[in-house]
Design goal:
single chain; about 180 residues; mainly beta; Lipocalin; 10-stranded antiparallel beta barrel; 3 helices; about 55% strand; globular
Length: about 180
């Protein structure tokens, strides 16, 4: 698998169930969400602006996409809803489409623009490591089949010596018809 195939498999609407252990707070959290992943053109203004902010030619981008999410968490006694969106732009290494950088206009561990390093293992696991100002994030995503994927995320201290949060997500692609999708929006 290379970045083109990984992004292609990821496009669509996903229902996600995430369990997170916030070790720093001694708290366990359940999160359910809907994730929409849509392809973007390299010429899209948001893509070109993100590339420009990192002095990268947008022609180097491979399959940029937007990821939007809306969900519910049981962090507090009352269910808390949240939503967001981010632009992601893979920039593959020129000699290896299985590794490169991933530009984001909004990060995972911190909601600031970020650049992570990705690689795809021989068994098809997408591995992303991103260093932020106060933390380091490591995410692994793999497909059990085209409509079912798993994701493991670790948020570590900035030095990488301690784990602050560990989470596991199972994500199932929504196979609803187009008319059903429109009524869900």
């Amino acid at each position: 698998m290379d970045i083109s195939k990984f992004v292609g498999l990821s496009l669509g609407r996903w229902r996600s169930q995430r369990s997170a252990h916030h070790l720093a707070f001694g708290h366990f959290e359940q999160v359910t969400s809907t994730i929409d992943i849509v392809s973007l053109d390299r010429a899209d203004l948001e893509v070109t602006n993100l590339c420009t902010s990192y002095n990268i030619d947008s022609h180097q981008a491979a399959h940029p996409f937007r990821m939007s999410w809306k969900g519910e968490s049981d962090w507090d006694e009352e269910a808390e809803t949240f939503e967001g969106t981010t632009i992601l732009v893979p920039i593959p290494d020129p000699d290896n489409l299985k590794s490169g950088r991933l530009l984001r206009d909004r990060g995972y561990a911190e909601t600031i623009p970020s650049v992570g390093k990705y690689r795809i293992s021989e068994d098809g696991i997408f591995i992303l490591e991103t260093e932020y100002e106060r933390a380091t994030a490591e995410e692994k995503i793999w497909f059990v089949n085209p409509n079912f994927r798993l994701r493991v995320s670790l948020i570590k201290t900035s030095g990488g010596s301690g784990v602050v949060t560990a989470s596991f997500s199972s994500e199932i692609r929504s196979l609803a018809s187009d008319s059903e999708k429109e009524s869900q929006v």
